[in-house]
Amino acid sequence: MTTASWTTDRPWRGVMVATALPMREDLTVDHDTYAAHVRHLLDNGCDGVVPNGSLGEYQTLTPIERARVVRTAVEAAGDPARVMPGVAAYGSAEARRWADQAAEAGCGSVLLLPPNAYRAGEEAVRAHYADVARAGIPVVAYNNPIDTKVDLTPGLLARLHADGSIVAVKEFTGDVRRAYEIAELAPDLDLLIGADDVLLELATAGAAGWIAGYPNAFPATCAALYRAAVAGDLQTALPLYRSLHPLLRWDSRTEFVQAIKLSMDLTGQHGGPTRPPRLPLTGEAEAAVRAATEKAVADGHH
């Protein structure tokens, strides 16, 4: 695996931010603020955006809202190849329709979970990815067995890659050992960091990109951290990583959307409220995110 950053021929590489979706107080989507947020991320060193991921609360959006979020991201990004929509859905047919929409919009890739309401066996998983890949747009697999109960093991990922169904994987398990096995079994499959709090470990293991949460609040610092990490510049990367880790680990917790939106509010971005069933952070959780964010700002991160 190489550590090249964003390229037009492999647009899923580099720092691809899983964007939080700004809501107004009445919980309608604020598309103008979202467009400004996309531009802000790209202006501050990030390579692209991933709308309609779990951080973008896609499960709470209507189909009309979800389609419009993709259009907003494409228009704001300037280059549609920098947009990797999440196309997860309960059925393969619906996921394929979202992939078709992304292809028509000129997006560079899509991010696809395995079937997420059905504990699919290997044959069903392979059929699901093959079906969506027929949209003709590069598919990045998303391995999150914690939430989906379907584990895209290194062996299964290698078979999906050999099928021609996927070009990369967002690895969220936090098990760094998998990186080396994936590289052995599928050397041409791009490994993308899927959880913020194993960034340094997966970068040194050969990751080609980062589907990232916390750059929503700290884009410039997170982009600098990623570039130092993949370049093997531990002198630069390790102090940054240590400084940000109290925040980065929230990306792997249940309340990651609320945590990142709170940090955005504290850094001058518009995070705003989340839609139910997510409730605002309170008590110890809110205090911890607030303190870690304020410390990061005091440390000069932005």
Strand content: 5-15%
Order of helices and strands: EHEHHEHEHHEHEHEHHHH
Helix content: 40-55%
**Ends distance:** 30 Å
* CA gyration radius, whole angstroms: 18 Å
Indicate the structural class.
alpha/beta
Strand order of the largest sheet: 2-1-7-6-5-4-3
Overall average pLDDT: 96
Unreliable stretches (pLDDT < 50, length at least 5) are none
Give the overall silhouette. Answer: globular
How many helices in DSSP terms? Answer: 12
Notes on the structure:
This is Dihydrodipicolinate synthase family protein. Belongs to the DapA family. The model has no long low-confidence stretch (mean pLDDT 96). The relative contact order is 0.13. Helices cover 45% and strands 9% of the residues. Helix 3 packs parallel to helix 4 (122-133). The protein contains twelve helices and seven strands.
Architecture blueprint of SSEs:
Elements: E1 14-18, H1 31-43, E2 48-50, H2 63-77, H3 92-104, E3 110-112, H4 122-133, E4 139-143, H5 145-148, H6 154-162, E5 168-171, H7 177-185, E6 190-193, H8 199-204, E7 209-212, H9 219-230, H10 234-248, H11 256-266, H12 283-298
Parallel strand pairs: 1-2, 1-7, 3-4, 4-5, 5-6, 6-7
Helix pairs in contact: 1-2, 3-4, 6-7, 9-10, 10-12, 11-12
Produce a short descriptive summary.
This is Dihydrodipicolinate synthase family protein. The chain has 302 residues and is an alpha/beta fold.
